[in-house]
Amino acid sequence: MNLALVFNVKPELSADENESPLTSESAPDDKSSIDEYAEWDTWETINAVRDALAEYHQVQLIEANTEAFEKLKMIKPDLVFNIAEGMHGISREAQIPAILDMLQIPYTGSDPLTLSICLDKARTKEILKYHNIPTADFKVISSPEELETAKLSFPLFVKPNGEGSSKGIFNASLVHNAEELTKAVTKIINEYHQPALVEQYLSGREFTVALMGNGDEVEVLPIVEINFQELPKHLAPVYSYEAKWIFDTKENPLDIFSCPAQLDDELKNKIEIICKKAYKILRCRDWSRIDVRLDAEGTPNIIEINPLPGILPNPEDNSCFPKAARSAGMNYNVLINRAAWHGARRYGLA
Length: 350
Hints:
The structure is a single chain. The chain is 31% helix and 18% strand. Helix 1 crosses helix 10 and helix 2 runs parallel beside helix 3. Strands 8, 9, 10, 11, 12 and 13 form a six-stranded antiparallel β-sheet that branches. A four-stranded antiparallel β-sheet has the order 4-7-5-6, with helices on both faces. It folds into three domains: 2-107, Rossmann fold; 137-200, Dna Ligase, domain 1; 203-346, 2-Layer Sandwich (D-amino Acid Aminotransferase, Chain A, domain 1). The protein has helices at residues 43-53, 68-75, 95-103, 112-119, 121-130, 178-192, 241-247, 265-281, 320-327, 332-346; strands at residues 2-7, 58-63, 79-82, 138-141, 156-160, 174-175, 196-200, 206-213, 219-220, 224-226, 257-258, 286-294, 300-306. It is an alpha+beta fold. It starts with a strand and ends with a helix.
């Protein structure tokens, strides 16, 4: 098949000599936060996905900028492999899929509605609660003044309502008093220009669960556990921006993940059941990664759902979806082509 790989690339990095340069609209500005482009991919990842797909298909690269519509319209690929995070706003992850729906071009992954809902953490949690899927109690705070009347009990966890890749989640996001809470909420509102999601802190173990497939054939890959005891002692037991991008690096990786996680059958089944249920209710397609944390009683709670999972190719980068795939016996190329196959099969192309 003729495939197009649609992506966003981190602007501080340049393409290799065979790739086109970045467009000016991708460049950072002075108002960018420290983690402004944390969701976007590096050329290492983009090229690895391209090379995997090229084992079986003709592949063209298309950057997900304002020129993408015309390029997709002109090329009209048989299938788009979508890893684009989008450029602006709460609906940014839905931008490329919406264009593809308009052009009637098949693509991998979830549709615009699912991508928009899952990026809006509060909307996701409202849907989960409606369906009786455990998730931490929460409030959405749009201004620090709202905290004066909010009924909250510490400890609490504060993060942006519409970000991914640990954006806006720092060591100081775990708060224990009103002063810390006000400071954390104010930071989110001022620096990320959006409401803060304030959740009841879940004190138990944390897992991330990779799922692939559609309908009744959804497969749960080996569960990954995050071992917070491996973090530096001064860090909170949270996989924060500091933990993910500063301390757990390719050059000095932390032994922070266990896969498959050491779980008894009862807990493993509970986690798999709620993840499959959430995957179905949110209408995820082809693949997604779901983050889960236990509360003080040991009950699994959904933290968030990631329909565009991170897929860093280098094992030393500790990217959880490829890690789960390796544990299931899939190398990186097999993982990427299986995701493409799931997408193609939905459209009757496989």
